[in-house]
Amino acid sequence: MSDWSAWIGREETRHDHVDPGQFARWCGTLDRVAPGDGNAAQGFHWCLGLPDGPTASLGPDGHPVRDANAATFLPPIQLPRRMWASSRVEFLAPVKVDEAVTRVSRILSVSEKTGQSGALAFVDVAHETSGSAGPCVREVQTIVYRAPAQASAPPSPPPPSEGLFDPSSWSVERVILPTEALLFRYSAITFNSHRIHYDLAYARDVEKYRGLVVHGPLMATLLLDLAGRKLGDNMLKTFTFRGVSPAICGEMLRLVLRSNHAALEFGIYSADGRQVMSASATT
What we know:
The chain is α+β, with helices and mostly antiparallel strands. The protein has a single domain (5-282), classed as Hotdog Thioesterase (Thiol Ester Dehydrase, Chain A, Roll), CATH 3.10.129.10. The protein contains 4 helices and 10 strands, in the order E-H-E-E-E-E-E-H-H-H-E-E-E-E. The protein has helices at residues 20-29, 180-189, 200-205, 216-231; strands spanning 11-17, 81-91, 100-115, 118-131, 134-146, 172-176, 238-243, 253-260, 263-270, 275-282. Strands 1-3-4-5-2-7-10-9-8-6 form a 10-stranded antiparallel beta sheet, covered by helices on one side. Helix 1 (20-29) packs antiparallel against helix 2 (180-189). It is globular and about 50 Å long. The N and C termini lie far apart (41 Å).
């Protein structure tokens, strides 16, 4: 185990602007209409305060190289496979279009474990995005790093089974087919160069996925969009999501929503019933 104590509390501040053109392109990516009140919709904050390192600083996976001697915010964990595992989001106020924003990020914890697939490392990062009137979004994001995929490992996730997803217990359902164009557009608007989202040979042969992987925050954004279509924009107070298994480009996804006492419960499932993401929210 490494000693990551020097990284706990490390902060980074980024300044950005909620560009109307960028927000319009985000809405186009999701096939949705922009709110008419001058506010951005929930989920757009993931397009703000993005890393902007030069191309020469990228590692083999498309993320900035993790080097102890480099001036990087995240700790230099050497496990090569990285994914955004979950987030806990608190919406305090709408992000306003055409406004300057500041995002302050702070590393909360770094932990190492051993799982069935080998070594794992978890990094919890707190983000606070603020506009001129104060904080708009607070979030704790969990990033997980994993050991290299074994050459003999079967593709992940398993091939589709003959089962079918049953939506009867859910009150709202939307069917989405994630295409290469959707993944490309979301990568572009979030400046995400992780190769599992656009390089099929890399995703399949190096990281051992069955195909291109749908972004975790894209799926979370689609769930927020589902809530917006049902309840109206910017109606959620909190939103928590966790990735359960990979979603593969070109394979149908079923987004579902139902009320659960005082909260909302969400899910994303593949066509054969495999759960891809779980989420919950309060209004």
